[in-house]
Design a protein that fits this description.
This protein is α+β, with helices and mostly antiparallel strands. Helices cover 32% and strands 12% of the residues. The protein is built from 3 helices and 4 strands; from the N terminus they run ββαββαα. It has helices at 31-46, 74-93, 103-108; strands at residues 8-13, 20-25, 54-55, 63-64. A two-stranded antiparallel ribbon has the order 1-2. A two-stranded parallel ribbon has the order 3-4. A hairpin with a 6-residue loop joins β1 (8-13) and β2. The termini are far apart.
Length: 130
């Protein structure tokens, strides 16, 4: 569960470009609302609707993969793994309510450098030396 009391991650991935959009959900009942938001953003951006929705057999009733066969939705599964790895790295560097210290600090005995951490969605630029 996140600090905002979100329990679920809903990820939409364009299989052609691999562009992804992620929504945090407090309850699975928010899925339809987020799906509508995503479809509206695609229609607004590209003036066309998604051709298909592929689901891992959650509550969405469109195209489904066979249950317990993550290889059928490999791109989405890999993206979710990457997202969870990023979340774990960040969580280890942020203070917890229980100890009021970061897990990193408790584990390594030093305060982690978090000067590079920004709020998700913050505009950022990469410096490429000439």
């Amino acid at each position: 569960m996140s600090h905002g009391k979100n329990k679920y991650i809903l990820t939409f991935i364009d299989y052609y470009s691999r562009y992804y959009t992620t929504y945090l959900l407090k309850d699975k009942s928010e899925t339809v609302e987020k799906l509508k938001m995503f479809v509206a953003s695609v229609k607004n951006q590209f003036r066309r609707k998604p051709q298909a929705i592929l689901s891992d057999s959650g509550d969405v009733k469109h195209l489904h993969t066979t249950p317990f066969t993550p290889e059928q939705s490999g791109i989405a599964e890999r993206k979710n793994c990457s997202l969870m790895e990023m979340v774990r790295c960040m969580q280890n560097r942020l203070p917890t309510k229980a100890a009021n210290k970061a897990a990193f600090e408790l584990w390594f005995g030093r305060v982690p450098n978090i000067s590079h951490i920004r709020v998700f969605g913050t505009k950022a630029f990469a410096y490429v030396p000439a």
